[in-house]
Write a structure and sequence with these properties.
The chain has 21 helices and 15 strands. The protein is α/β, with parallel strands linked by helices and 543 residues long.
Length: 543
């Protein structure tokens, strides 16, 4: 695979060796030139070496360029105090076309295997209702992080933690009990104060009537346990179905109830004991001995667990399964959770840096310039499913990952619905569709995978972006930054549109040029499809 930056680093390393300096490749910085008059790539290595060699950067640059000769470099220039600019031959860039076409859907994937086992837990919404927009953004970002990790050849597991224990599930069971009675014509029961009024609970009650008839009309421990268990199962099944519609799947579902029933909470409590003290009947964990700002309650004065204790047991369970890195994607309201969990892991003897937490900021919807909050159908906040029905899965996913997780997101429903270039999703997908159309028209031409005729500035600009794709994936994965992939996609789309507009792809009077440009179109189409796939967005053939 063509990797000009790596080749340049290797060349500079050899050049420095001739000057008597040994460096590692990662010490050499190569940057893409922003101004094409400054070449394709630039390095500040001469400035870095000034102190080591006791010479001015410019003198070092003058000496160094004597050793920087290669068949893929057309020329080198020294600029300013000692910057070295590299101009790359266009035929060296065009060699990437064959690599892309041959690797097809695998282009961009890393061959460097990472042995670290990573667990990414995301969404983990309580199975008590529909997924809201916060869940949806967490789903999109978590899923994209996993996609990027996979492309970059990391061992990654997608996990959903099912909160099927505690009061919220009891409230679900109580709500379902009332709706079940109502579905059978009994309206005598009072709806619980903290119950769930959602339409989904009433729908589940109707399903239960179909399954068991009036078997659980008489209240008992057995009937409550049934409402609790079956209600959780059906709510979770609905969430899973909605997430699959959103192109999000999981490898592992871990039940909080299973964690508790397996005695893992008691096991972790025993390990934490040296750091536990009692105050007014409650049991506290001394997390302030580590990085937390205050000690945390593990067991309330009534003997019930806080959510923190089973969460600690759950994280230990994950580490005991052999994961080297835990990544939790949580809502922005979990800011205080970070240090208390890291402190807890440290008490258990783990490196707190095994856990990273991505805090997902909130989403606001706007329509006609006004904040848009309510579903017309339910009168409640718009759900993930409803938003997808309104503007499409592609738009929702793209917009949700287009900004860093740490940034608030204002989602413009009008913009997401537009079929024009101002809509970044349409702009990117249309670039792919354009290439599909021209390739269909040129299907009878033989492709020149060497790209021998490619030298137009728009062709060269596009080739440079195609070359960068594997590096972009690696960097986005390393930094867990799906939003940077959308930046790359927009840059690629712009380059494709400019190439399409300024370079006539099919020219019957110039078969050789046509073959080269069709090959470039095919390679660009592959990369756009692969790039969109990293964020779970479709690449349509027609629009």
């Amino acid at each position: 695979m063509l990797d000009i930056e790596l080749k340049l680093k290797e060349l500079i390393k050899l050049g420095l060796k001739e000057l008597g300096v040994e460096v590692e490749l990662n010490q050499i910085v190569i940057e893409r030139s922003k101004d094409k008059s400054h070449g394709d790539y630039a390095t500040t290595v001469a400035l870095q070496m000034a102190r080591t060699l006791h010479k001015s950067p410019r003198d070092i640059a003058l000496e160094l360029v004597k050793h920087l000769n290669a068949d893929y470099i057309s020329k080198t220039e020294i600029a300013g105090p000692g910057f070295i600019n590299f101009f790359v031959k266009s035929d060296s860039l065009s060699s990437i076309i064959k690599t892309i076409v041959e690797q097809d859907e695998h282009y961009g994937e890393s061959k460097e295997e990472h042995n670290e086992r990573i667990n990414v837990e995301f969404v983990s919404a309580n199975p008590t209702g529909d997924l809201h927009l916060g869940h949806a953004r967490g789903a999109a970002i978590g899923d994209c992080i996993c996609r990027l990790y996979k492309k970059a050849n990391y061992k990654v597991t997608r996990e959903y933690y099912v909160n099927d224990a505690g009061n919220q599930i009891n409230n679900l069971a109580k709500s379902l009990r009332v709706r079940y009675h109502e579905a059978l014509g009994d309206n005598s029961l009072e709806f619980p104060e903290d119950g769930y009024h959602g339409e989904d609970v009433a729908n589940i009650a109707k399903i239960l009537v179909q399954e068991v008839g009036d078997k659980y009309l008489v209240d008992s421990d057995e009937s409550f346990a049934y409402f609790r268990k079956r209600g959780t199962e059906l709510e979770l099944a609905k969430l899973v179905k909605d997430l699959e519609m959103f192109r999000v799947t999981f490898d592992v579902f871990t039940s909080e109830l299973d964690i508790r029933n397996a005695g893992k909470v008691e096991k972790v409590l025993e390990k934490l004991n040296p750091y536990i003290y009692e105050d007014e009947g409650a049991k506290f964990l001394r997390t302030t001995d580590f990085t937390d700002d205050k000690d945390r309650v593990l067991i309330k004065s009534d003997g019930s667990y806080t959510y923190l204790l089973p969460d600690i047991a759950y994280h230990q369970d994950k580490l005991e399964r052999g994961y080297d890195k835990l990544i939790d994607c949580l809502g922005a309201d979990h800011h205080g959770y970070i240090e208390r969990m890291k402190s807890s892991l440290q008490i258990l003897g783990y490196n707190p840096n095994t856990l990273d937490i991505e805090l997902i900021q909130m989403v606001r919807l706007f329509k006609d310039g006004q904040e848009y909050k309510m579903s017309k159908r339910t009168g409640n906040a718009l759900s993930m499913k409803e938003l997808c029905e309104e503007v499409g899965v592609d738009a929702v996913r793209y917009f949700f990952v287009s900004r860093a997780a740490s940034s608030h997101l204002d989602f413009d429903l009008d913009l997401a619905s537009k079929m024009e270039s101002s809509n970044p999703v349409f702009y990117a997908q249309y670039a792919h569709a354009r290439l599909a159309t021209v390739l269909e028209k040129g299907k009878d031409y033989e492709l020149d995978l060497e790209g021998k005729e490619l030298n137009h500035e728009k062709e060269v600009a596009l080739l440079k972006i195609l070359v960068d794709f594997p590096k972009e994936i690696a960097q986005c994965a390393l930094n867990r930054a799906p939003y940077k992939m959308t930046n790359y996609i927009q840059k690629l789309a712009t380059a494709i549109h400019e190439f399409y507009t300024e370079c006539r792809v099919i020219d019957e009077s110039n078969t050789s040029l046509t073959s080269s440009r069709l090959a470039l179109a095919k390679a660009s189409k592959i990369v756009m499809r692969n790039a969109l796939d990293t964020i779970g967005v479709n690449a349509p053939e027609k629009m």
